[in-house]
Amino acid sequence: MRINAKGLHWTPVTLADGTKKIYWYAWRGGPRLSGEYGSPEFIASYNAAVATKVVVPEGRLLSLMQAFQQSQDFLSLRERTRADYIKQIAKIEQKFGDAPLKALSDPRTRGVFLDWRDELALRSQRQADYVWQVLARVLSWAKDRGKITINPCERGGRVYHGTRVDFVWSVDDEAAFLEHAPAHLHLPLLLALWTGQRQGDLLRLPWSGYDGSTIRLIQSKSKRRDAVRPVRVLIPVGAPLKAALDAAPRRSPIILTSKAGRPWTSGGFRASWRIGCDAAGIIGITFNDLRGTAVTRLALVGCSEPEIATITGHSLRDVRSILDAHYLHRDIELARSAITKLEMGYAKSAGAKTGTDSSK
Predict the structure, then answer these.
(1) What are phi and psi of 123, to 5 degrees?
(2) How far apart are CA 207 and CA 212, in angstroms?
(3) How far is CA 167 from each of CA 216, 278, 286, 319, rounded to the nearest angstrom?
(4) Residue 225: its pLDDT value, please?
(5) CATH classification at residue 146
(6) CATH number of the structural domain spanning residue 247
(7) Are 254 and 204 in contact (CB under 8 A)?
(8) How far is 235 from 213, CA to CA, in rounded Å?
(9) For the whole model, what pTM was predicted?
(10) Domain check: are 353 and 225 in the same one?
(11) Same domain membership, residue 252 and residue 316
């Protein structure tokens, strides 16, 4: 049944039990509608939502927020990212929705925005940075389209400067997880360690992406700086991962499934992963740390930065950043390797001076 309701927006969702459902909204970013599509309850909830919608006057920040959510810059984002953006945009609208656009050119406006970010950072530095990121992106979009002349949130930096130096899975952590965590969580661990991919991409990886020797994967979040399309990676499958994949039952078109054999939602997987970590006594490290662990392990066996980037899909600059700043500079194995090389070099030098080979 078709109804005459302008601006309707719908989103497909997967419920916790694996069933599919369509959620309808009065407009993009608007309230969710109740009842089945086309039913009297549905139409009544739509009319009630429209009656409360206020027409936003031009020249206000709120008008930019709404226009951005109708743009391809917003619509081309992943569904999860759009949902996260909507939450942050709601915070911005509540605080600054009525702000006149002409105020953006006032140098004091940047200070007002920064003060608000500092206020939010008292509760969560990461969330404060996320709100700032979304505000900066909306204003950048508006500036590119000539709607404003100045973006006061350009080059705002970050409040949160956390590091994951010590957050790497050791071989003992891996062994403990494989021994004590539920069996259906073993394959996600091995996939992450042997591919270096993000949780979201691995949860979407289909069996058609595995041909028995390689994994073909599209990184939906990453984009090369000089490319428009997401990064595609082709990863040779190591023997331990191949054994696990070949032994895994194919209960779904998607490789990773829950104990019930259904593809995971991101929230369901995080909950199951916490249970697995608790059972194995794993504390302080997360699934996301497996990506950095994979980079670290590849480097420790002598892989070059280009080789690592080819497998994980990182840019060379990002690989270098991980190795230099986050994971390797405290690794004892690298320190031992460096001292061994120094000893060998010293022995050869001493032998050259005395005419003997002191390394023997």
Answers:
(1) -95, -40
(2) 10
(3) 28, 17, 8, 16
(4) 42
(5) 1.10.150
(6) 1.10.443.10
(7) yes
(8) 9
(9) 0.59
(10) no
(11) yes
140 and 248 part of one domain: no
* Residue among 297, 277, 298, 295 at smallest CA distance from 286: 277
Q: Which of 84, 81, 82, 66 is nearest to 27 (CA)?
A: 66
Same domain, 249 and 144: no
Structure tokens at 128: 């404060």
Instruction: Count Cβ neighbours within 10 Å for each residue of 17-36 and write b for 16 or more, e otherwise.
Output: ebeeeeebbbbbbbeebeee
Domain boundary among 20, 38, 53: 53
Could you tell me if 36 and 21 are in contact, meaning their C-beta atoms sit under 8 angstroms apart? no
Q: Residue 353 is part of which domain span?
A: 334-360
pLDDT along the chain (360 residues), means of 10: 68 75 78 82 81 68 92 86 91 93 94 95 92 95 94 89 72 94 96 93 95 90 50 88 96 95 92 95 92 87 86 81 58 64 74 55
Place of tokens 């080789």: 307
Residues 78, 113: one domain?
yes
Rounded CA-CA distance 161/272 in Å is 29
- Phi then psi for residue 132, to 5 deg, are -60, -40
**281 neighbors 182 (Cβ within 8 angstroms):** no
| Last residue of one domain, picked from the residues 128, 162, 196 | 162
- Please tell me the total count of domains within the chain: 4
